[in-house]
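INFO batch 0412 | record 1 of 1 | parsing
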Amino acid sequence: SEALIRSYKRSFNGFAAYLTDEEAKRLSSREDVVSVFPSRELELHTTRSWDFMGFYQPTSVTNLPAAGGDVIIGVIDSGIWPELPSFDDRGYGPPPAKWKGVCNGGTNFTCNNSSFSLLDFISSNGFPSSKIIGARHYSGTGSARDLQGHGSHTASTAAGSVVKDASFYGVARGIARGGVPWARIATYSVCGLTCSSADVLAAFDDAIADGVDVITISIGRRSAVDLDRDTIAIGGFHATKRGILTVHSAGNGGPDPATTASVAPWLLSVAASTIDRKFESKVVLGNGKIFTVNKHFFAV
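INFO prediction complete | emitting tokens
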């Protein structure tokens, strides 16, 4: 039917379609239908964090845990830029046998970072040896390549490889790395100019069936809604049933009360917090006085 937009059937049953109000009302009255709700547009949510929290952090690819490469993190976001140093795939063997996904990154995208790879294995299921072992796109952009930077940022925060001598315009130079730098990444690109709820649910459907261990998603609403109308809560619920943890951003609001958009009890909701570092600059006045401020300025 031309009204059908998407069908969810790999991990749970459902569909997205163009319906009239009357059709939606009739469907919602059926005993075999859990919920019917409009597909809404969602928004993207926005370095030393892991050290600050006391997590073990390697400083090179030579001291990574042997089994770490078996962890697969599914990133539902705006895609990924695979050539970035944070996704360097040196030292990686074939993807884990549990992986059932594909590299369908679309236009101008490959999952194998050949410019970095020291290994050229092809696993028995046909996937190239790489850190980014899977890619799918849903947003209509025709590619899983990240044109906004948000998806690459969130993916590197979760699983970025060790990058030495990283800095912010020369400031705070050191080692950049994700929370689990030895983990594999599967990217699910659902955001172009907007992020459709129907596409997000399709990404959950695929990520669960593909065999990821963790799903991270930094997309959502500006405020909480009923759980049976919350696409991410629904997708996360089905992931939890399969033993897959869903990590979801709390939202872009705050610090006022009731501004957390992620409230489902089966989601791990993550918000911004304090940290033990700051960017300082010295402001020199014409009279010679010098003030230190917690901002970063560039000379003009």
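INFO post-check: The helical segments are 21-28, 49-52, 150-159, 197-210, 231-241.
INFO record closed
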